[in-house]
Design brief:
Layout lengths: L3 E6 L9 H11 L2 E8 L14 H22 L5 E7 L2 H11 L4 E5 L13 H10 L3 E4 L16 E5 L10 H11 L2 E9 L11 H25 L6 E9 L2 H11 L4 E5 L13 H9 L4 E4 L11 H10 L2
Parallel strand pairs: 1-2, 1-4, 2-3, 4-5, 6-7, 6-9, 7-8, 9-10
Antiparallel strand pairs: 5-10
Helix pairs in contact: 1-5, 3-4
Length: 318
Amino acid sequence: MFDHILVPLDGSSLAECVLPHVIAIARALEAKVTLLQVLERPHGRSQSQFVEPLDWYMGAAEARTYLNTLAARLQKADLQVETAFLEGQAAERIIEFARDQSVGLIILSSHGRSGLSGWNVSSIVLKIILRAYLPVMIVRAYQPPEHDLMGLRYRRLLVPLDCSQRAECVLPLATALARFHEAELLAGHVVTRPQMPHRAPLLPEERKLATQIIERNRLEATRYLRQLQPRLDVRVRTHIAISDHAAATLHDLVEQADVDLVVLSAHGYSGSVKWPYGSLAVNFISYGATPLLIVQDFSPEEVEYTQAEMFARERKGH
């Protein structure tokens, strides 16, 4: 599944922050890497209106040289590397290429040529994440870069688990990475307190019921993680917390445990094909500060198109 990794680049140093992670992931998975750059047309020009001037040819030649230079650097890490150059709208062409070439993982920098901003990911990256329906990895460009291209080693991976089979879809990938990097796999579970809407203070029997539910779920999570550990041929540590907000608790755990990679399923127990990501994945995309690897538990064919997507496809005649 992860034997082909796509790495979109735009020629900026910010986008290149992914390269140490590309090596760290590709070597662990023995995956082929494709470096892709899309040269966009000037704004306001359609396919039929566009005429290639001299500066366009120069830009295309520079892009190809740039990709070949980076490919040579990655090949020194004993990786199989290919390059691809496309024209058009970046997000659309990247998604099309990923689907056409059976890409198993897209590794993206959170920001690129347009520079850093207050948004956690750039608009192009967000479009790719929301429409690719494939496993994606986001490297935060605003974090200090790894200067040693081949020296990145993951030390601790956080894998949030909610006792569902959907959440477990990340385990083959997470264990492969942990094994290669000799990293600790931190399996985290948050027991959320039940929501009990009320305007007056809870009655004693209501508080007792909430406590019983919490304790039941804590025991079940403990049993689940205890049974899971022997299945994973890596160093595993488990962590169970009780909280009102699962995402906030997991963000705190990332910081407190010094996690350097979060590996997360796109959906958990309540997953729905109506959306490409569940609430926890969306939260980590929007507010996470560490590298994030999200595994899609639904195939692209299973996820329902949004109304905007259906309208766009109708206009294109699909």
